[in-house]
Design goal:
Structural class: mainly alpha
Number of helices: 1
Order of helices and strands: H
Radius of gyration: 39 Å
Oligomer: single chain
Shape: rod-shaped
Largest sheet: none
Strand content: under 5%
Amino acid sequence: MAKNDSDKTFKAAIINMFKQLKETTSEELKYENDILSESINKEIKIIMEILELINTRTEMKIILDGPNSRFELAEEGMSKLEDKSIEIIQSEK
């Protein structure tokens, strides 16, 4: 019987060790997962801020280029009209 009791004690000790290892590992994994999630959330926030800056830059470029391109189109149209009027005047001579 003494051997049977020592086997039970040994098995119980091993089972307790595995339970403690499982709990410790689970806690460590949860902690590491929390740290990883926090890091990923920070990176996502940075990426979102960069995308907002790019969007703002694009909007500003559209706003600033708009009048310039319209002005250039108007100049081009006026230049064509001037060229046509010169052609007409020269052909009438």
